[in-house]
Design a protein that fits this description.
By secondary structure, the chain is α/β, with parallel strands linked by helices. It is 27% helix and 16% strand. α3 (144-151) packs across α5 (169-182).
Amino acid sequence: MLKRSTQTNEPARCATLLPVLARLPQPLALIEVGASACLCLMADRYGYDYGRGSLVGPSVDQLDPPVFSCVVNATTPVPTAPPRVTWRAGFDLDPVDISDPNQAAWLEALTAEVKASTATPGRGRPPKAATNKSAGREPSAPSLGERVLALAAGKTRQELYAACPSDLPNHVGMAVQRHIRAGRIQERDGKLYATSPATEQAPATA
């Protein structure tokens, strides 16, 4: 959060736009202002489940597209075919380049909960932003959660972010919140203190 701005990318909103786009004279040219990573410019490339009708998007690199569900009523003009888009462009003051691993990881961190709640199981997820969260870390190296717990010795959140320069601040913040919810870290007077040894235990299984 110290170096990047929050980006909102919710491609599932395309499910509400598609009925309108499909009824416009074709082909279409799309322009989005505040496009971030331009995920909402790809409405013709996703799958949709409207309950009484569905559309399947084209596969890319042998991967099925995400399928977004949308509740409709009897008067909703459910499209039978995706719109034909021949040109698209997005504008943003701070665009996200998903070909850059660091920017892609930031985007995925911001959309993680959205993906879990909107993607249809077995039908793919909203555009995958990064697959290298743990890339480059040796198996014996401490996890981010373990490092955060070890560093929580009277540091502020900003100091903790600075102490983890190779990790995205949003990832560090999520690790802090996970420890706070589990009771492993307490926050007093704006500073973080570990309440347990610097190990992040896996949940016990029967």
